[in-house]
Design a protein that fits this description.
homodimer; alpha/beta; Molybdenum Cofactor Biosythetic Enzyme, Chain A; Alpha-Beta Plaits; Maf protein; 3 domains; five-stranded mixed beta sheet; 17 strands
């Protein structure tokens, strides 16, 4: 079974917005083994939309249209579908009355233009919209099931769950769905991850492992299809094998972010952390506190951007700064140790580096960063790295490596109650 | 003149990636008055692609295809175009030789599979790729100009500049381009911005003003078309009028971010800033330091997430914390004043609040934030707000208001040399 998605709306043909509804719909379709044949965006032009529907109709078994169901003149989806299929449109007076009551419940007298939302295409089944006023429609033509859903994401999502998903589940063969599991890897280059998982490509098929790289992180998607029990079993096996091949840098088997994994580990150890950041300037603190309830493991931090503050807030000696420079192993180490001591946390993170674009030298080129993590039993991890990429990328990769070093130190530490 | 864009690649039909190349291409096309008729994504299926090309061919004057030009079997764009147009494909041996030399220059012997990249469609003009090995092609059929460009964004961008733009410029009528200018507004609700600019909708046409809202910011795009001199004149006029209608909350007429505008103002005043953050936990510091060269105006900051650190790092008294709570006007003010004094900066920012999801009460519900900015002449701005939205949205809006209060204080301050 194949499907196509058409997003309707001239605003989606501009330079500022993308149709993201299709990602949600694709995931739903995949879950029932329905493959996406293609997707398109078209403006508020009834003829263009009617032609596009006619293009997809003989090629797919499910056609989902999003947007263009509102009350104004540029909401042309109902009209275009009727035009394409040669059907009539009529106003459903019961629906008009429901719309009127919906507006009344908000204390508003319904504007007459809203009658357009009660237009029903002949032969179509109306789909209730629990989150808004524009109802959807579902109709069948020449072996293709057509769904008209609103374009507002929360309405589209709710109606996908309420109407599209149950319909898909009721179709023969859709128990052979497709499912994905994401495994996350910290601080390894994409090429290195590829090299490590090469045997898994052989064993499970290259097309069943999707690699997505971002600064400091590689996400591996394992993909399996078939009946639920069978595909889940296969996903377990794939995850296990991928984790084994990649090894220690795997930090998440369920899509959790690195900051939330570190937060969970700190909680499990009953331990706290504090941060001393220079080039990342608060990014590590900001990431750790994205986790709800982070006040249980994060005490705070200092952003010692200037050398004066490295001295006054952290007690790094002026002579050390002068002799080794602010971007040096010893300063990174002292930042981690001192922030731990002064802010009275169990663990301390220190980061000092050159994010660029200025400030680089031959000896310490842009991208050079010293990252250190200090622990409660005198542990100290340090890395000197040179990250590629622009200012934001260097900062992101630095924050990622700092959190990863802390994660490894926590994994190596004995159980809880350490402070 | 109308155009369509087709992105080729099965990976773009999955749940993790969107075709973003089309935004860049749309902006280029718009600049020459070429309107986008529609855009589509199709997988690595030559017949599906050939059918889609046949659909767009009679409807547009420019058809841009991105992706599917690599050397592997799933790179099917050349084949699909030839199939659709009934043309032959041949290997260009001169091109093979060039590819071989390109690989040799990296010290690599070219794999034979790369010969596929030298396939040229009969009647097509080859388009040089300055950023990669896959060349593009350009051909004409039935009044439509077809461009085959690579899918890798930096290659696609370079080839758009090198081939598509000059071709568009050479066509009659394309001097009537469309241009956009972005005006940015801080900390006003979208509805309030809409109300203020209502007269501009009347004066310039509703369709020529695009409103894009994100947490703490509303961007207004002024759109004008026509010959260059005429449309720029119109854009100036629209920008001036919009800025006048919205007033003080307008912080940028050229798309610059709030943090960079604040950075420029600090530089102009020869002044520095330091931050004391609780619920935003480093976000303001991180934003200020996204600006290259920020060490000239940002000295550093403290993230006083725990009450203990509000006391030890900022000297907020235990009694104050106990009597008023950490989320209170007096604590916000003291944070701003103390961080300014202790970190020896001209300006100080203090933020304390409840980002949620936990920690709210009847008196201080989730989203309650106190934001204060202290200046070098005893100035102090304070706001108590209750932001809607989730944890990240509350934090983003808080950082935005803090920067906005600082911007206004800087605008009200006398010239430079104040410290």
């Amino acid at each position: 079974m194949k499907a196509a998605i058409i997003a309707v709306g001239s605003e989606l043909l501009g330079v500022a917005r993308l149709d993201t509804n299709s990602l949600f719909l694709t995931e739903c379709l995949e879950g029932f083994g329905v493959e996406l044949f293609g997707k398109s965006v078209v403006g508020d032009d009834p003829t263009a939309l009617a032609d596009l529907i006619a293009f997809y109709l003989p090629r797919v078994a499910v056609l989902v249209l999003t947007g263009g169901l509102g009350p104004t003149a540029d909401d042309i989806t109902r009209q275009a579908v009727a035009q394409c299929l040669g059907r009539q449109i009529s106003i459903d007076e019961t629906l008009v009355e429901e719309l009127r009551q919906r507006f009344a419940s908000f204390g508003i007298v319904m504007a007459e233009v809203n009658r357009r939302q009660a237009e029903v295409i002949s032969g179509a089944q109306r789909l209730a919209n629990p989150k808004g006023s524009a109802p959807g429609q579902r109709l069948h033509q020449d072996g293709c099931e057509i769904f008209l859903l609103p374009g507002v994401p929360r309405e589209m999502r709710a109606m996908t769950e309420l109407h599209l998903r149950p319909w898909l589940a009721s179709q023969p063969g859709t128990e052979q769905g497709l499912e994905r599991r994401t495994l996350k890897v910290a601080c390894l280059p994409e090429s290195e991850v590829e090299a490590r998982i090469a045997p898994a490509y052989e064993e499970f098929g290259r097309q069943n492992i999707v690699v997505l790289a971002s600064p400091g992180e590689v996400d591996l998607q394992a993909v399996a299809s078939g009946p639920v029990a069978e595909r889940r079993c296969r996903l377990e096996e794939m995850q296990g094998r991928l984790a084994e091949l990649v090894g220690e840098p795997v930090f998440s088997l369920d899509g959790a972010t690195l900051e939330s994994v570190v937060g969970q580990l700190l909680l499990a150890h009953g331990a706290t952390v504090a941060t001393a950041e220079s080039c990342t300037a608060g990014l590590v603190a900001e990431r750790l506190t994205r986790v709800a309830g982070s006040s249980q493991f994060f005490v705070g931090g200092v952003v010692t951007y200037s050398n004066a503050l490295k001295r006054s807030l952290l007690g790094v000696e002026g002579e050390t700064l002068e002799r080794h420079g602010a971007v040096s192993e010893i300063v990174g180490r002292q930042m981690a140790e001192q922030v731990r001591r002064r802010l009275q946390s169990d663990y301390g993170i220190g980061i000092t580096g050159i994010a660029g674009p200025g400030g680089g030298s031959e000896e310490k080129p842009v991208g050079t960063v010293h990252i250190a993590v200090a622990g409660p039993r005198g542990q100290l991890a340090h890395r000197r790295v040179r990250f590629p990429g622009d200012r934001q990328s260097v900062r992101q990769q630095s924050s990622q490596l700092a959190l990863e070093l802390l994660r490894r130190m926590l994994l190596a530490a004995p159980g809880s109650g350490e402070s």
